[in-house]
């Protein structure tokens, strides 16, 4: 008797060919290619690269090529920065780079956002695989590909790239690209980073790499389509020209260089540089002690509702091998904007490596090539094709923080230091996004460059810098408000004022953040939004005993025109979030606080919106802080007397600010005694603290405890929410119901209760 | 023409003295404790060379002009009064936060990129000396919150109690409406009248800079206030010294705008970098007098390499937001790019690329290069130059510094040879080639981002190491002609002798020449012209106050323009001074388009996005006598002079040493030609003529390096 089996019979070669041919002919469209998208390693040497290198590599020539290319890229960068119309371009949120034929970054401009370029190998490989030999597309000298879809390799969809091939004798030998954070991209909310997107279609333009410049000519039909798809067609045009001009300028320099050193020397130099960096990274990893370090972070909202979702990160080192394990990270939420593609998270790993671990390292793809990264697809840090990703930075910036924090642990006892250990840099885009019609009649949508004022973490020997360049870009700039006000119909009534106590406490304190209070005036239509988490659960942790950042709400005063009130009584122009919310000085106003995920909110003249940057993490025990430094902070109104006493345990004369050294020593001794008193043996602590699962009323997503195989999640079914626990592959799709619908349902239930109670029927609109 | 021009630098006080047809160079050490002493010594030397005495000269000359680095040094050393600042409510931390990137201003790339090491510099105004007043003006200049005088009085008293010795008032949008700044000034003067002891100087932001940007304007005003006293005393000291010896005319101070003015019309901020900028001015004048065409001026010293751009036809390149020391400020300054590369640049091993990295660290003058034998252990460019045979160990810096080649060799062997597995000679060749190429890349970038090509330029090479590296830099940059200019040892002082009396006045404006949304062209001609008229009036007053006739004053209208919302504001000089119709508007648009396309490429202009003016600026100036440069003709019949000796010298692209003729100063005589390879050692520098180049001295001490 023949046994019946369900195992499919292997196909013959002929059958496989038929199947492949059928599949090819019936491809609906080309999506992101997992083979390209899952890999962050450098490509193997091509035959041509091998041949070029085999002819002998003159180190002096490599150095020469490196310097010349660096000069060309900086030239291109300056062109973009000078000509760019997007706020991002004006304040340094851009980059230029050169890539090998296979798409690996070999050199980056000295300034700009490392992550932009570090991720472009994905679209280049896509072009090489799918478009190069496609008869309807092809790659020719003078062609330029545009791209922004994060699913094909991008930090997020606000960033647009122009990618052009360097060709010799019909062969692609390298690529040059420029990327700018453009902001507006036609998403469901202005500014390009919609916190309100609920489907991938709400994320705005999703340009997989396509050819928009053909043999040197910008295609007007495609340009027109793009301009129609965004709120700011002038910006789309102007910056596209800027990127093309910049890349062309770099190409001129590269062409001249190739003429000078020869194609083979040029190709060899690009490749050798990548391999040099790869070797150096392995060497540096081997300097780190073997072992495992871990860092778990939590986000406190979907930017619509309060939840707690985990980003788990472990780094394991053994010899020259480093493995990053993201398993245990919470599942993607399929109708919320916080999901990120894995490539975006990796790009921020790269930012941490090149800017914070080893800032002396040349900026190449290979800086992360040898690091293995384990991640489950379908988590919010490794989201699938259908997930909305408007606020992907929520996951990817946490990826940065994980790397920054873990490096402090990994290299604590290593003899070679390549940079300062720094407690967590503030990691949120804490600014106002805005959109509407300006005082000049233009329709616009973008953001305040204040996001670039991220407070720095404390160092082991010095306080962190107050709002300084952001974690993702050294020398990125915050705007001059006067320049902004000329373009947009709102004022920052409080523009830059540090918020008292807003620091990560510690022996050395994290940098402080500033508050911003805005109100529009003189526009037919305007609105603001915010896209930040951390209003309830801090996004920033301290280091080695230091405190994290406090939480920070959004506060609004609606229904009153504060401009009118100030014009009438200038003494009312005395604003701070603390004062306004406590004293409520504007009669008739509706005062409210919110979490930091504000979807586009229409602002009437004079309605106030108030936020504050968070803070950098503190370093070390606050009880070890120099008491004189505490008094200096008191003198400058950086901290309150309560913080000086309760956190730093410093006693002083409030009138003269003279330190009482004896009383301080006593306070600190007592504080240490209290700590000992609160202390418990570890097992006792575990028994009292650790629970089998998260609190029942908490919308929690991610692994719970050390086990990372199963994820805990709350799903929403016809009967309401239900908590489940399962491996990522077995979890059902998670979608959170619209909070407005929930509110309506709750009100309807209340009405029904009242009807039942009073025997009366309320007539409703159909 | 009888004139004294002086450039007071950190080490030397250079004097360029014009007495009719005699042009005389003289140098003396700068005497920091009393600048007048160094000045007198340099002047005495010049007088001696002219056969005159100081008194006669000072009684007779038409002007004495100063360029000085005094302000730069005072900033670096933080020598200044306690300055307090009053700002708009809500902007209390704008100054200390310094736009976020303030940690990196004035630092090299590697430090700018090193965020974990980011540290802001010690502030010029400490936070406890900053106060806000409740007032607000919007971008159109309309008052939103009225100023409360009681609030102002309280704040001023608090500042004075806290120890403020000068007060800066810099309010948001004060350039559009300065009413509140003026009111505060009035109140301070009431509280602390100028005639009373304890009076405090008050500087208003809108008077220091008319440009939008609350941070840069405040910083500019602070730097001005910080330097005001020290500059006033130092310049007064110089002025009194002149008066004592019979000079009765006003002393003139060189400005970084490329002009000059009397002391009473000079802000301290305008004097920063005035020395190097006077050098660029000299290059400009030399070019226009002798028909050199496009010129790039380069000044290579021990620690830095200054690049100035002088295109043909009088096109000006300014930095409107330059960095001074560690501060971003708002002042129209002649563009000058400084690279961290010089003789003292340290060569180190780059393990990642198995290559040599040059700079940005510098050994400076103390300990200096290893060969100085002053304790420096790390090899520098000068060490490489010495081992290649370019420098005479016994006659370096006119014999002031004896060089020890053993130290150079040791430093290179220890730090580079073993790592690179190369011999000393190969390493020093790589250093020479590397530093030349680095500077050539700097020059190339500088030119190309402004739309020029290096091959179209003549390079001027001056400074202590300029003629030594001129051929190498030019070769890598693709430049065919290099000129060590006339009077090169005092070139900046020479430039000061040619400056015009010039004042810039500017005002931020929102003029939309073409509105892309409404598709309309600008038509508020009267509004535009009124601003220009006001700026011209201020310039005229400045010059008339200094004794010029109103009819001699000329004006040049410049606009900072951009497409759409670009950051870039391209300065455009106009032929016209008023806009009186659509033809003028289109003319301005056309001029902008030409300038923009030249800089960025023909297809880069984006007029479809709209065309705007951000700043209106008027340059007010009077022409004056200038130094006459002799013809710089090269070629013709020339003879090869006799060398003093021969030396074995190594060159980058040549295997083995070449027996190279060595000349002294006498060889640099008009009519000679010195074929490369050759070396000419003079009192101030070394001329290295690389193979494939030749040296052709011309009039007034100028020397051509020409490629064969």
Describe the structure.
The complex is a heterodimer of chains A (766) and B (708). Chain A has 766 residues and is an alpha+beta fold. Chain A contains 20 helices and 23 strands. In chain A, the strands form five sheets. A seven-stranded antiparallel beta sheet of chain A has the order 2-1-5-4-3-6-7, sandwiched between helices. In chain A, strands 8, 9, 10, 11 and 21 form a five-stranded mixed beta sheet that branches. Chain A has a five-stranded antiparallel beta sheet with strand order 14-15-20-17-18, with no helix packed on it. In chain A, α4 (59-83) runs antiparallel to α9 (233-261) and α4 crosses α10. The model of chain A has no long low-confidence stretch (mean pLDDT 93). Chain B is α/β, with parallel strands linked by helices and 708 residues long. In chain B, strands 1, 2, 3, 4, 11, 12, 24, 25, 26, 27 and 28 form an eleven-stranded mixed beta sheet that branches. In chain B, strands 19-14-13-22-23-35-34-31 form an eight-stranded mixed beta sheet, with helices on both faces. In chain B, β16 (323-324) and β17 (327-328) form a beta hairpin. Chain B is globular. At the A-B interface, α4, α9, α10, α13 and β14 of A face α4, α5, α9, α13 and β24 of B.
Briefly say what this structure is.
With about 775 residues, chain A is an alpha+beta fold. Chain A has a domain at about 30-285. In chain A, a hairpin with a 2-residue loop joins strand 9 (about 305-320) and strand 10.
Topology:
The complex is a heterodimer of chains A (766) and B (708).
Chain A: H1 13-25, H2 34-37, H3 47-54, H4 59-83, H5 87-90, E1 94-100, E2 105-108, H6 114-118, H7 121-131, E3 144-147, E4 159-168, E5 171-181, E6 210-214, E7 217-218, H8 220-228, H9 233-261, H10 263-287, E8 291-301, E9 306-318, E10 321-325, H11 342-357, E11 372-374, H12 393-410, E12 433-437, E13 443-447, H13 481-487, E14 490-498, E15 514-520, E16 526-531, E17 554-558, H14 562-568, H15 577-583, E18 590-594, E19 597-602, E20 608-612, H16 627-635, H17 641-646, H18 661-678, H19 682-689, E21 700-701, E22 710-717, E23 720-727, H20 739-758
Parallel strand pairs in A: 9-21, 10-11
Antiparallel strand pairs in A: 1-2, 1-5, 3-4, 3-6, 4-5, 6-7, 8-9, 9-10, 12-13, 12-16, 14-15, 15-20, 16-19, 17-18, 17-20, 22-23
Helix pairs in contact in A: 3-10, 4-9, 4-10, 8-9, 9-10, 11-12
Chain B: E1 2-8, E2 12-19, E3 22-29, H1 35-50, H2 54-60, E4 63-68, H3 70-76, E5 83-88, H4 94-97, H5 109-113, E6 130-133, E7 136-137, E8 143-145, H6 149-161, E9 166-169, H7 179-191, E10 202-204, H8 205-208, H9 214-244, E11 252-254, E12 259-262, H10 274-290, E13 295-300, E14 305-310, E15 318-319, E16 323-324, E17 327-328, E18 333-334, E19 336-339, E20 345-350, E21 355-362, H11 381-387, H12 405-420, H13 424-448, E22 458-462, H14 466-477, E23 481-484, H15 491-496, E24 500-515, E25 520-521, H16 525-545, E26 554-563, E27 570-573, H17 582-600, E28 611-622, E29 645-649, E30 658-664, E31 674-675, E32 678-681, E33 686-689, E34 693-697, E35 703-707
Parallel strand pairs in B: 1-4, 4-11, 5-6, 5-9, 9-10, 12-24, 13-22, 22-23, 30-32
Antiparallel strand pairs in B: 1-2, 2-3, 7-8, 11-12, 13-14, 14-19, 15-18, 16-17, 20-21, 23-35, 24-25, 24-28, 26-27, 26-28, 29-30, 31-34, 32-33, 34-35
Helix pairs in contact in B: 3-9, 6-7, 11-12, 11-13, 13-14
